[in-house]
Amino acid sequence: QDNSFEQFIINYCNEKLQQIFIELTLKEEQEEYIREGIEWTHIEYFNNAIICDLIENNQTGILAMLDEECLRPGTVTDETFLEKLNQVCATHQHFESRMSKCSRFLNDTSLPHSCFRIQHYAGKVMYQVEGFVDKNNDLLYRDLSQAMWKASHSLIKALFPEGNPAKINLKRPPTAGSQFKASVATLMKNLQTKNPNYIRCIKPNDKKAAHIFNDALVCHQIRYLGLLENVRVRRAGYAFRQAYEPCLERYKMLCKQTWPHWRGPARAGVEVLFNELEIPEEEFSFGRSKIFIRNPRTLFKLEDLRKQRLEDLATLIEKIYRGWKCRTRFLLMKKSQIVIASWYRRYA
What we know:
This protein has helices at residues 5-36, 49-56, 62-71, 78-89, 132-136, 142-149, 154-159, 176-192, 215-224, 227-236, 244-251, 266-276, 296-347, and strands at residues 95-97, 115-120, 123-128, 240-243, 284-286, 290-293. By secondary structure, it is mainly alpha-helical. GO terms for molecular function: actin filament binding; ATP binding; microfilament motor activity.
């Protein structure tokens, strides 16, 4: 119930992770249909980039305002930090404060004067402003780092490399908020280069007890994890997509015209294959470089047909091998019989 600077930066990281989830699933999903020239119904979804900008913007973001308060001369308190936020962020649709002189919140008794509230992707969170400045300004003084670096213990010396006199930097050490922001940016850059797989954990109850299922809690998590939007996009679009070449390679044994070799373009081969299997036209669409299958049942049908065809081919291979083996054995026996008979006639 009481949220301070620590929970604020944790929620900031969650917003960034949610943003990359949106970028790599919802947005990329819809952009791929446009890129492939597929007709479909566009699904509206909430992009939380506006919330991330509220927190991390270099000029007007909350972290930037916090760093500015920590660095400026004069009397700096948590209240002056909140006053600055009220000046800069008062008109932002996801920022709420009683001190912002905004008529919407002047009579909001659920919002104390020493707090501000952010409407995150997963809901509204109220933050106690007390301690923000001190926790963000939690710096290790340069002379203390130098003293620790001079220690005779190798581990202590290794933990304070900034104390090395040869690497003295006269710049002010970065604040806790700016360090965390840089770490999150590095994490996002790393994730952008990967092929992510998502595992969403749903907490069935707050007590962490077995056999208790809180419907309201589960629905809340599903809604704010973005799962509903993801499902809507998937249902409105296509469940499966694959480039023409690997698709033809996987299912070409289902059609006599494409098996064992197809000499023409891969897309033409896939068209012949789907026409031969009499798959309804509304179940698939041809993109510029991929085949899109709308319903998972169609894909399951293809996989079942492929499995059966592989069994038939295995039986055919086994039949041919057994025939070859028996024929080879018969010819060997026939040749041996002729040799034996010729030698017998010679001495008979």
